UniProtKB/TrEMBL annotation:
Protein name as it appears in the record: Hydroxyectoine utilization dehydratase EutB
GO biological process: isoleucine biosynthetic process; L-serine catabolic process; L-threonine catabolic process
Keywords: Lyase, Pyridoxal phosphate
Family of the protein in this entry: Belongs to the serine/threonine dehydratase family.
Domain Tryptophan synthase beta chain-like PALP: 16-300
Biological source species: Paracoccus thiocyanatus
Cofactor(s) the record lists: pyridoxal 5'-phosphate
Entries under PANTHER family matching the protein: L-THREONINE DEHYDRATASE CATABOLIC TDCB, THREONINE DEHYDRATASE, MITOCHONDRIAL-RELATED
Superkingdom of origin organism: Bacteria
Amino acid sequence: MTVTLDDIRAAAERIRGHVVETPLVRDEVLSARLGQPVWLKCEYRQTTGAFKLRGATNAILSLAPAALARGVVTASTGNHGRALAHAARALDVPATVCLSRLVPENKVQAIRDLGAAVRITGASQDEAMQEVARAVAQEGMTEIPPFDHQAVVAGQGTIGLEIGTPEAVLVPLSGGGLAAGIAVAVKALSPGTRVIGLTMENGAAMAASLAAGHPVEVAETASLADSLGGGIGLQNRVTFPLCRALLDEVVLLTEAEIAQGIRHLGRAGHVVEGAASVGAAALLAGKVVPQGPTVIILSGANIDPALHARIMAEAA
């Protein structure tokens, strides 16, 4: 199973009017420091505060009425659940979101506020996904996975149609839906553009799977980049093959580096979660060296305000 540029263009037509075409703004500090133009794709300004609304909306609009009538269910580290809840409410479709205990309370409450039923189970996304499988098998719900799904990947890939043809794109890497979708679009339009996946050092399932050559399980740990946690599924059919084929590099970041990225972006007026800061973090740490115009995907804004305040108060 794969995703094509035509799929992404069709998704862009399908979700038009349901999502925001977010701005691309120049990071003047990083551009001056690194000697190359650095642009920020502000997906955190999406309606639900994260890019996930694109994929969830495309997926739910692709379902048949009978599937919608049974209700939709997903597992999430927070942002996909919020996006699916929003899209489902707009279509008056029942939605259930399964979460692990590691998901921050602010994200859990945001999902409840959108009218979705929330089920908290276990200490990993893998355990939350087991609850999804049970809901599908025993309750007849229709699953919309957070990443390993063609319509979800195509929806995320619409971002790649909006960023031009830079020398490099720095993409947060978790289950691979965002990275795979953007890579499909960007590589089709600009084969020479580097697409670099960025994630945390500990508990990064896609990074470990790419290194192993096949999907593997990892132990989840708490991270400032909590949205990048969770497994990719041992039976992954879409995002692992695409990431393996299309990503030019994967970069791992420490918690201190992620915090530095949050602080840098916060000082520039971009209040984002840890997952969204990894591109800036990689440039600041010298782990990615720009060779031309570079785009950073600021994936989400859903950070606990008290946590953001503590990070901003720390010494740079």
